[in-house]
Specification:
This protein has 459 residues and is α/β, with parallel strands linked by helices. It contains 16 helices and 12 strands. α15 crosses α16. The chain is globular. The protein binds nicotinamide-adenine-dinucleotide (NAD). Nicotinamide-adenine-dinucleotide (NAD) is lined by residues 157, 201, 248-254, 275-277, 322, 336-338, 358-360, 385, 388. Residues 157, 201, 248-254, 275-277, 322, 336-338, 358-360, 385, 388 line the site of nicotinamide-adenine-dinucleotide.
């Protein structure tokens, strides 16, 4: 994914150069210069903060741990993005993730810029006290550059509400008497977190495909039938259909998306397969997701891996290889595990006509091109998995106002925000031959470019 942003910005701006309705004030040489400025501004981060956290471990050893906070762009608002604890964390990856946050926030009109943090550790190799120290050190080292109006971190891979609570506590100690609730999002409810934050990404992932295949499709059937493109054909083939759904990953995102699909009143869904890091479970008649959730909650979040465990869970399903979930004959495949799951070696075996990216970049570029050419509709990560950052924004607002929303209010606002984005991108997506991902990038780049121009940043 290294330097993905450069390609995205180049491609989007090349397509926009000859579109005279976009920034019509900019003509000829001025236009060329302004577009060159945009490429330069959007392709590079504003700031790269790197430190080596000095931490004393339980055995009295002192270690220096690489840590990053990368701030890509804040033209729309304070930088915003998670802090990842993983041994593979490096500057290039954090930088790419920061830039993708800029695009995601711009696309969904969340008034934040893009940032990302990371600490190069395997958190499982540290005990609770050591992790607590690492979190405090992170805040101490970066306290000058983060804050409610500057840069607002959130959980990411390897971090959770626990780490955000610790970090906010440290931020409050370092800056006594200042506002602190908005310094971190994804906190526990008692510490100012938002109801619904935990479920937000999975709910948004499910909403994405429900909105496309139910609401949008029903309202636009006639219009779609007049469009002569492969994606419109795929969508129309799904009118009034009962859907079979497979979900890869049964963690925070996948299990919530699966439960939403199981409960959905709008579509005639059946969740026929779910998987995790060990196994795929398959039942053509549908899997009892609530029973499965009850089991995983008591079993370290792992799915049953034997007939005996299926019996304990009271779930009827066939046990299959872990990766079988990807190539089953289903209508919808929700990818909610890891990046790079659909790739050159398995893309030709994918049968789903709709793929929803709950994880970040689960479909590689090559597989994306191949499947898009076949008319498969891929609802990209930037569009489908934004529920977390949208509800983080609600959490930040609630922290400022010290007025808290009910869970229903949170989900209502989440759906309405995602609906607005879908209504912006879908007509153009079905109107031209570009995949939805490219369409989303284009919208985000257009928004950022217009704001940069209007704020006089291009000269
Ligand atoms: P999680 O750790 O709660 O769950 C991950 C799930 O994937 C687990 O069920 C795990 O067993 C499974 N898994 C791991 N390796 C697998 C493999 N090789 N094959 C199949 N399943 C595998 O994580 P999560 O919070 O649900 O996040 C899932 C993905 O979504 C991650 O890539 C994350 O970066 C992305 N994401 C999460 C959020 C969020 O708010 N949680 C927001 C945006 C993107």
């Amino acid at each position: 994914m290294a330097n993905a942003i450069k390609g995205i910005v180049d491609e989007s701006l090349n397509a926009l150069m000859d579109d005279t309705t976009f920034l019509p004030e900019l003509k000829e040489n001025d236009r060329k210069k302004a577009f060159a400025s945009l490429v330069s501004i959007l392709s590079t981060p504003n700031h790269v903060h790197k430190s080596f956290l000095r931490v004393t471990l339980e055995d009295d050893r002192v270690v220096r741990i690489p840590a990053f906070r990368i701030q890509h762009n804040n033209i729309v608002g304070p930088y915003k993005g998670g802090i990842r604890f993983h041994e593979s964390v490096n500057e290039a990856e954090v930088s790419d993730l920061a830039s993708l946050m800029t695009l995601k926030n711009a696309l969904h009109e969340v008034p934040f810029g893009g940032g990302k943090g990371g600490v190069s550790i395997n958190p499982r190799q540290y005990d609770t006290r050591e992790l607590f120290l690492i979190c405090r050190k992170y805040v101490q080292y970066f306290s000058d550059v983060i804050g409610p109006e500057k840069d607002i971190p959130a959980p990411d891979v390897g971090t959770s509400a626990r780490e955000m609570d610790w970090m906010m506590g440290e931020y409050k100690s370092i800056r006594p008497g200042r506002s602190y609730r908005g310094s971190f999002t994804g906190k526990s409810i008692i510490n100012g977190g938002s109801l619904g934050r935990r479920e937000a990404t999975g709910k948004g992932v499910y909403f994405s495909f429900r909105y496309l295949l139910h609401d949008f499709l029903k309202d636009n059937e006639q219009w779609l039938s007049e469009r002569d493109n492969r994606f419109a054909k795929t969508a129309l083939a799904n009118v009034n259909k009962s859907f079979s759904v497979a979900v890869q990953g049964f963690g925070n995102v996948g299990s919530v998306a699966a439960l939403e699909a199981y409960r959905c009143q709008h579509l005639n869904n059946k969740v026929v397969a779910v998987s995790d890091k060990n196994i795929t479970l398959y039942n053509a008649d549908g899997i009892d997701i609530p029973a499965l959730l009850q089991f995983t909650e008591q079993n370290n979040h792992d799915l049953p891996v034997s007939e005996e465990e299926l019996g304990k869970a009271n779930v009827k399903a066939e046990l299959m290889d872990r990766d079988a979930v990807l190539t089953l004959d289903v209508d919808v495949l929700i990818l909610a595990a890891l990046g790079g799951q659909v790739h050159a070696d398995n893309m030709e075996e994918i049968k789903a006509q709709i793929i929803v990216e709950g994880a970040n970049a689960p479909v590689t570029g090559e597989a994306d091109d191949y499947l898009s050419d076949q008319g498969v509709i891929i609802i990209p990560d930037i569009l489908a998995n934004a529920g977390g950052v949208i509800v983080s924004y609600f959490e930040w607002l609630q922290g400022r106002e010290t007025q808290f929303l009910t869970e229903d209010e949170v989900f209502e606002r989440l759906n309405s925000k995602m609906k607005k984005t879908f209504d912006t991108v879908l007509p153009q997506f079905f109107g031209d031959p570009f995949p939805l991902r490219q369409n989303c990038y284009m919208h985000a780049v257009m928004k950022l470019s217009t704001i940069l121009f209007r704020q006089g940043k291009l000269y």
